[in-house]
Each structure stands twice: as C-alpha cells, then as structure tokens.
Design brief:
Number of strands: 13
Structural class: alpha/beta
Strand order of the largest sheet: 11-10-9-12-8-1-6-7-13
CATH topology: Rossmann fold
Distance between the termini: 48 Å
CATH superfamily: HUPs
Helix content: 25-40%
CATH architecture: 3-Layer(aba) Sandwich
Radius of gyration: 21 Å
Strand content: 25-35%
Order of helices and strands: EEEEEHEHEHEHEEEEHEH
Shape: globular
Number of domains: 1
C-alpha cells in the first residue's frame, strides 16, 4: 500500500491566544507548536497500522515553512517512511488543498489521509477540497477503516447512528477519534528519523482566496458558582436573575 498522510502544525492546546498588527495576525511569540492531534493520533497511526498489516509505504506531507520541519521529523520518528514539505509561508484552505492535490497528481496513492480538522481553525475544509480537486471519493470524520485488497470499509458516526461506506480504489479520508490510538515515538524512532528523507518542493501558483480582516477573542467566561443543595431559594434566584440562555 502507498499511503499519504497530510499533517499540519498547530499551537499547543495550552497556548495563550493573542493577536497583533491591529488584530489581523495571530501572535506566535512564546507559543509552543505541535503536530495537529487529529493528523498525528488518528490519521498517521492508522496509516502505519495498515502498512504494518499489508506492507507498503507511508509518506507525510506538510504545506508550510522550514520551521515546520520539527513536526515533520516527529511524524518520521513515529514511523512514517519519508516526508515532503511544500515550501510555503502562509496559505488558506484552498491554497493548502491545491498544493496537496498538485503533489498527489505526480504520484500514485491508495489512500490520502487528513485529520478531520486542525485544532486552531477547526475548518474541516481541506479534505473535501483535496478530494474535489482530485475527483476522488471522500469520507469525512472516519472512526474505523478496514482494508481488504482494493476494497475499503469506512465507518463514521452520524446523528443517531453510524454510516458504513464501501469504497473501491483510491479515496480521501479525514480521521476522527476512534480511528487509531496515539503512539509515542521511542528513542530508536527518533534516531532513525534523522536519516529519513525529507524533500522540499516549490508551491503551486494557486492564489489565496481568504484574507483575515480581524480576529476577535470571545468574552471571558465567568466563574462557576456552587450552591448548597439545601439552598434552593438561592438557586432559583440565580436562575431568574443571573442565568443567561445562549
């Protein structure tokens, strides 16, 4: 099997969020960055499990600057065979998807994996765009994937139940919780990652379609008030006078 896993770099979930340049840019000063968890824990690990079961190769692909190499090397340490980085500083969803699709067109992959979303923008856009640009089937929010020859069975949760899809041939998949279990790179993997190939390629000429005009922080959440279970009068008063329906 020849599998591609698209990975992105996101701020650590504990990072303090602030903006600069008149609230038009994310302030990354002092922020720790990680591989997007949906890409790492579910998409990458399930791809590795499939090649361990059926044989094959796992390539990771990132669209971003040289500073992203550290998270790419982590993917190699976890077990990916090789990596490619499209050398692009900033990109919206369409530009990212266009560069992924452009690279895929030069290769032959059985499955293209992505996380269901990045934890910074939560857009869930890139996977569908990649599938459309490649004219391939797309299954989003996959929680289970089994492969038997050319036939893949993909399960995803929907409202009120689950949906089971059977796909013949190459397709694009976005990974949700349940598809795999997180792996921690060991020392052997970390040492081997230093010698695995990481190719840097030039971006396509796709034009950016989205421009951030302004970022706005949500209102600060108020603290939780604990009420003695015997003090029902106070609870009723708070519900009438202070509780807000959202």
């Amino acid at each position: 099997m020849n599998l591609l896993v698209c990975i992105s770099k996101t701020p650590d979930t504990t990072s303090k969020i602030s903006f600069k340049s008149d609230d038009t840019e994310y302030n990354s000063d002092g922020v720790s960055f990680i591989m997007n968890p949906y890409d790492e824990w579910y998409a990458l690990v399930r791809a590795l499990e499939l090649t361990e079961q059926h044989g094959g190769n796992v390539t990771v692909l990132n669209v971003g600057p040289a500073s992203n190499d550290i998270i790419i090397r982590k993917a190699l340490a976890i077990g990916a065979n090789d990596a490619v980085r499209v050398d692009l500083e900033n990109a919206d969803s369409y530009v990212t998807a266009s560069n992924i699709a452009s690279y895929v067109k030069t290769k032959s992959f059985d499955i293209i994996f992505l996380g269901k979303e990045s934890i910074d923008y939560n857009g869930s856009e890139v996977g569908a765009m990649v599938a459309e640009l490649l004219n391939l089937p797309y299954v989003s929010y996959a929680s289970s994937l089994e492969v038997n020859g050319n036939i893949s069975k993909v399960t995803r949760e929907i409202e009120g139940g689950v949906e089971i899809n059977q796909i013949d041939g190459p397709f694009v998949l976005s990974a949700a919780k349940g598809l795999a279990e997180q792996r921690i790179p060991n020392m052997k993997g970390i040492m081997m990652a230093k010698n695995k190939p990481l190719s840097v390629i030039s971006p396509t000429d796709a034009s950016q379609r989205i421009k951030a005009i302004k970022y706005i922080l949500p209102n600060v959440k108020s603290g939780v008030k604990l009420i003695d279970p015997d003090n029902m009068d106070e609870l009723v008063r708070l519900l009438h006078e202070e509780a807000k329906v959202i």
